[in-house]
Write a sequence for this structure.
């Protein structure tokens, strides 16, 4: 569940929380004494406005207390497990509330709130809207990035490039999908904060491509405009009669129209004999997008959610182009979460469909969003997923039909063991 917003949070790697105006010279003159441990919060690329003080909505201590009290009240009332997973929730919530109210900065305040909700495996906090506003403001102030979509969040393994925006600084520097960024300006434990910086400035990345030794790449930051949706639909070079569809995440409202357009173009011309749907690293919480994606491959069935105070059933509508009869292979891995995870579970019930990969990251719950007075949103699990045929999805993870033990990101596409297994299934 914690991975649901992984792709949404990192998609803005081209913008950033960085020094603005004339502060880059100060940042160079006063580097941090030492790097923070991998996985720790890295403030080295974050402007002072983000680490000290509070935004207008949180200026008064009583305002910060009101946000916390509302968050706690809704968790008490709505949470799926009334036993709070066996935890002394009154004690836990009091501990984090005290920590949040003692915070002296916006970041410390939200860190405490995230610590609170992370105690439960069915609640998470999103400040995406607030962060997006901050990133947009700072982008206008002249901050830029390199134009990549990152799908790995463990800095000890480097940052994995899942997609590169055409004609972006990263593309011009020769960075490609599946590359790993191992260091930024000679510093190990890379982070997207370190990649962002003043527009026009340069940085040196230590990059490793599959099967190749690491190399240093110099990139000039620039302002980057991402498309509303990121997906890829094409025919595989190894077998042009097999289509390939990758969807970055299922949370975008524009995704259904983009999917219809991409699949229509993919299926024009020579008929396909099979299709590979790549949900590796795909997350998101978009139920509408999930329904429309599934509608191209399966229709006339229902799925739903059930909880102590929640019951819902939804139809999967048929969508054009109709690919319900085409042999299908779905690629999944531990990065397949949320609505992508549930999509894989439903498609596994479809005839002539094979799941290939490793056990998914999980996700079998319905989350209801609740907006807080500061503009942030928290999501709370209110129901568990029910598969077509009224079969409850007992496990959060989906186990594929064909298990692959290798890390596909270590391979170029031509040698990708997942795609090779998929083509074998589609013979």
């Amino acid at each position: 569940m914690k991975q649901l917003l992984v792709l949404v949070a990192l998609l803005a790697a081209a913008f950033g929380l960085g020094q603005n105006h004339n502060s880059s010279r100060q940042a160079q003159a006063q580097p941090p004494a030492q790097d923070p441990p991998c996985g720790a919060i890295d403030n080295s690329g974050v402007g002072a406005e983000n680490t000290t003080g509070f935004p207008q909505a949180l200026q008064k201590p009583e305002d910060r207390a009101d946000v916390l009290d509302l968050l706690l009240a809704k968790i008490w009332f709505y949470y799926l497990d009334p036993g709070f997973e066996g935890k002394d929730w009154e004690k836990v919530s009091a501990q984090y509330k005290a920590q949040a109210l003692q915070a002296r900065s916006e970041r410390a305040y939200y860190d405490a709130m995230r610590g609170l909700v992370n105690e439960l495996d069915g609640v998470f906090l999103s400040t995406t809207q607030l962060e997006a506003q901050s990133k947009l403001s700072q982008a206008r102030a002249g901050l830029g990035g390199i134009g990549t979509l990152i799908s790995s969040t463990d800095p000890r393994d480097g940052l994995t490039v899942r997609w590169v925006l055409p004609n972006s600084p990263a593309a011009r520097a020769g960075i490609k999908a599946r590359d790993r960024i191992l260091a930024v300006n000679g510093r190990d434990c890379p982070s997207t904060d370190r990649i962002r910086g003043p527009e026009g400035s340069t940085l040196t990345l230590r990059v490793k491509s599959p099967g190749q030794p690491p190399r240093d790449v110099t990139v000039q930051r620039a302002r980057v405009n991402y498309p509303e949706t990121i997906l890829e639909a094409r025919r595989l070079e190894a077998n042009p009669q097999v289509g390939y569809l990758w969807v970055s995440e299922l949370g975008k409202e524009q995704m259904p129209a983009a999917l219809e357009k991409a699949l229509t173009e993919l299926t024009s011309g020579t008929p396909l004999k099979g299709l590979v749907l790549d949900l590796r690293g795909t997350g998101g919480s978009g139920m509408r997008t999930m329904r429309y994606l599934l509608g191209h491959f399966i229709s006339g069935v229902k799925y739903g959610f059930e909880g102590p105070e929640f019951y819902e059933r939804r139809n999967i509508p048929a969508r054009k182009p109709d690919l319900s009869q085409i042999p299908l292979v779905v690629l999944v891995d531990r990065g397949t979460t949320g609505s992508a995870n549930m999509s894989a579970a439903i498609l596994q019930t479809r005839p002539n469909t094979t799941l290939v990969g490793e056990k998914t990251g999980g996700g079998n719950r319905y989350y209801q969003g609740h907006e807080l007075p500061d503009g942030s949103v928290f999501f709370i699990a209110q129901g568990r997923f029910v598969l077509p045929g009224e079969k409850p999805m007992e496990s959060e993870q989906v186990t594929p039909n064909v298990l692959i033990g290798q890390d596909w990101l270590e391979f170029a596409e031509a040698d990708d063991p997942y795609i090779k297994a998929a083509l074998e299934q589609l013979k």
